[in-house]
């Protein structure tokens, strides 16, 4: 399921409130400032710092 562009436009990193990079192939949202990667599950971004993957 694709992430809606409207939703994508308002999403920010919950840790720093910065912009996120959307990767539609990997189904992730990446914050380069925090070096955290948030997953998108069934079209719903999991915007929880505890659930994010560090890279
Ligand atoms: Zn961040």
Automatic annotation (TrEMBL):
**What name goes with this protein?**
UPF0434 protein E6K78_03160
Report the Pfam families cross-referenced here: Trm112p
Q: Which family is this sequence assigned to? A: Belongs to the UPF0434 family.
**One Gene Ontology term, aspect cellular component:** cytosol
Matching Gene3D superfamilies: 2.20.25.10
Tell me what organism the protein belongs to: Eiseniibacteriota bacterium
- Supply the source organism's classification: Bacteria, Candidatus Eiseniibacteriota
């Amino acid at each position: 399921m694709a992430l809606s562009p409207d939703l994508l436009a308002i999403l920010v990193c919950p840790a720093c409130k910065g912009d996120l990079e959307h990767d539609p192939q990997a189904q992730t949202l990446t914050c380069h400032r925090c070096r955290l990667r948030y997953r998108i599950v069934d079209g719903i971004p999991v915007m929880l710092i505890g659930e994010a993957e560090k890279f």
